[in-house]
Amino acid sequence: MIARAELRRRFVRDPSALVAGTILLALVAMALAAPLIAPQNPYDPLQLDIMDSEMPPAWLPGGEERFLLGTDAQGRGVLSTIMYGTGISLLIGIGAVAVQCVLGVSIGLIAGYRGGWVDSLLMRVADIQLSLSTLMLAIIALAVVSATFGAETYGQIAIPMLIIVIGIAEWPRYARTVRASVLAERKKDYVDAARTIGLSSGTIMRRHILPNTMTPVLVISTIQVAEAIMTEAALSFLGLGMPVDQPSLGALIRSGFEFIFSGAWWITLFPALVLIALILSINLLGDFLRDALNPRLRSRT
Amino acid sequence: MSALLEVQGLEVGFPGPRGKPRLALRGVDLTLGRGERLGIVGESGAGKSMLGFAILNLLPPPGLVVGGAIRFDGANLLRLRGRAMRAIRGKRISMIFQDPMATLNPVMTVGAQMVETLAAHERIGARAARKRAIDMLAAVQVPNPDKRFDAYPHQLSGGLRQRAVIAIALLTEPEIVIADEPTTALDVTIQAEIMALLLRLCRERQVGLILITHDLGVVAEVTERLMILYAGRVVEAGPTRALIDRPRHPYSAGLLAALPARANPGEALHQIPGSMPGVGDLPEGCAFRPRCERAYARCYIEVPDLGPDETDPVRNHACYLPLKDGP
User: Fold this and answer.
1) Exposed/middle/buried for B299, CB within 10 Å: 0-12, 13-18, 19+?
2) How confident is the model at residue A106 (pLDDT cuts 50, 70, 90)?
3) Which residues contact residue B264 at a Cβ distance below 8 angstroms, ignoring those fewer than 6 apart?
4) Do A198 and B98 count as a contact with CB atoms less than 8 A apart?
5) pLDDT at residue B90 tops 70
6) What pLDDT does A300 receive?
7) Is pLDDT at A299 greater than 50 in this prediction?
8) Chain B residues within 8 A of A208 when measuring between CB atoms
9) Which helix (H) or strand (E) segment is B129 a member of?
10) Are A280 and A230 in contact (CB under 8 A)?
11) What CA–CA distance (Å, rounded) separates A179 from B240?
12) B103 and A203: CB-CB below 8 Å?
């Protein structure tokens, strides 16, 4: 671990990290402030007018000042839906990673610390989980859920469902990372020392080993958030993610995709650009963290 | 007075080929009275550290106790499990390790680690725990203890870190401290300070000390009794002064002769020829026999038992042809 001040200094000196950080911050702020700054509430049917549908962006002929980036087929302003949609995408991405993290870190910690058959069993379960593609698993789970509950109810539970499904599908990455660090930490003297103090295994795992394995967890978390957002976008694009009336970025891209050949390219293009900017900035920040926290790469910078 | 800690015939083994364990300790006896200081000396691999870990029931897997008994204040430590054992570890018997950088958790402040130790064994409030920890830091002569309380290990020098480790070990007022090479990782100048500190604290607080080291010089100044370990067995035991002045076992004599302080300037240091056999390839008869100048026929066949010396019965050695008192 390097000190916070040192991390800040590196961050300011790294142009790609600085740009990525700024973009990410702007996107998060936009998503959080969406209800305040969006010109229109796309979830409120009373504010929508079917007569406004498929308007091009304001600077093109036929565009209106009210809808800067044009409107979609239901007359929702693309700018407003992006503002709200980014929030949903981020919520699902971060929520799913929280689920992965809690599951994976606890399983990895126990596997690495206990060792023996517990370790073998948990890691084989992780292997099985990894051998099933995330997308396939999510498609099956979500298809079953939406068929069971019907589209109406599904719309209400879509966000927690996506969080849980993506969370469960990806925990082994955390488990493997944490287990590897625990195996290295467990041999160190301070763990023996903690045992000679008379602490219980649970306390040693939580208070002594866990904090020392957090650096790699932090690094993979950024990449995992980006992946979870992409998985959600892919599911939504396939029609299994967020419903049309509360769209995430992926759902927006999908809903616009149907109109791309009729000339309404803006419905798909703008959410796609935002999605790319979001993923790219998260990944760049992840790269920065990985390099900054890796002692072996540190001397080179 | 019955001994506080009594180890009898302790055998520690590691799984070997065909299910037969390889013994790292082969029948070690040890007694320690209240406030007594015992030194355990041997080369690396002789099993000294195993002895320390075995007493706390913390042998690194796959090591395990194969035979013998460890009695502490009436209870057999080998039978204790879980909570009962943890109530002794760190509370009544604590341990100090070699490398203070590695023994302190790098992501916790020194203070947090001290408070944690207290909280593991006593019901104590945050403020009271802090006060006791700071008092203890002051007792081990850490300057500005209330500032160092909030310091992370990497912010302290090696000597201060080892002082903090000693403070943690003594914090719960243990009856025995097992110190495993406590000064080996430190600068020579600091070694003496730390040893003197440990000795003073153990004396003042009537704490028993088991000092595990390969450095006879350190042991001579601190301990009352001495045990020399060779290839998992005690080859000689007795009062420190007598053992150092008049060693009985040829191995003890060899170790003493190898001390740089005993050599005449300009002369090559004495060394014992050969090296200690590993646990897997012990020779027939006495384990020291291949390196011993005095070995005769019997040493090739039988393993000498640890027994009282003919002239000085408080001393014990395991040799058929012990050295006699010098002229």
Assistant:
1) buried
2) very high
3) none
4) no
5) yes
6) 43
7) no
8) 105, 108
9) helix B126-139
10) no
11) 47
12) no
A227: its two tokens: 């992946």
Return the structure tokens found at B273.
């020829």
Residue A215's closest chain B neighbor by CA?
B107
Quick one: which of B271, B236, B275 has its CA closest to B252?
Answer: B236
A238-269 pLDDT per residue, tens: 888 888 778 888 888 888 888 878 878 888 88
Average pLDDT over residues B241-249: 88
Neighbours of B28 (CB within 10 A): 24
Bond preceding residue A42 cis, omega within 30 of 0: no
C-alpha–C-alpha distance, residues A252 and A120, integer Å: 43
Closest B-chain CA to A210: B107
In this structure, what token pair is assigned to residue B300?
Answer: 């090739």
Chain B contact set for A199 (CB, 8 A): 86, 90, 116, 120
Q: Which residue has the tokens 């003297």?
A: A189
Identify the band that residue A297 occupies on the pLDDT scale cut at 50, 70 and 90. Answer: low
Structure confidence at residue B77 (pLDDT): 86
Please check whether residue B198 is in contact with residue B182, taking contact to mean a CB–CB distance below 8 angstroms: yes
B175: left (phi over 0), alpha (psi -120 to 50) or beta: alpha
ipTM: 0.74
Give the distance from residue B220's alpha carbon to the nearest chain A alpha carbon, in angstroms.
27
- Closest CB to B89: pick one of A188, A196, A212: A196
Sheet holding B208-213, edge to edge: B93-96, B176-180, B208-213, B37-41, B225-230, B233-239, B316-317, B307-308
At residue A126, the pLDDT reads 93
Give yes or no for A9 touching B (CB within 8 A). Answer: no
Please tell me which residue, A102 or A139, carries the higher pLDDT value. A102
Q: How far apart are CA A48 and CA A45, in angstroms?
A: 5
Distance, CA of A27 to chain centre = 13
For residue B162, give how far its alpha carbon lies from the nearest alpha carbon of chain A (Å).
13
The one-letter amino acid at B71? R
Strand residues in chain A grouped as ranges (E): none
- Per the CB < 8 Å rule, is A1 touching B106? yes
* Per-residue pLDDT, B326: 57
* pLDDT at residue B257 is higher than 70: yes
* Structure tokens, A220: 């993979």
Question: Closest chain A residue to B115 measured between Cα atoms?
Answer: A197
- Lowest-confidence region among A63-72, B134-143, B163-172: A63-72
**Number of CB atoms found within 10 A of residue A148's CB:** 9
* Cβ–Cβ gap B120/A189 under 8 Å: no
| Least confident stretch, A19-23, A38-42, B254-258, B285-289 | A38-42
Question: Which of B 219-278 lie inside 8 A of A, CB atoms?
Answer: none
Evaluate whether A103 touches A199 at the Cβ level (below 8 Å).
no
- Which of the residues A118, A196, A206 would you substitute to probe the B interface, choosing the one with the greatest number of B C-beta atoms within 10 Å? A196
Report the range of poorest mean pLDDT among A64-68, A219-223, B119-123. A64-68
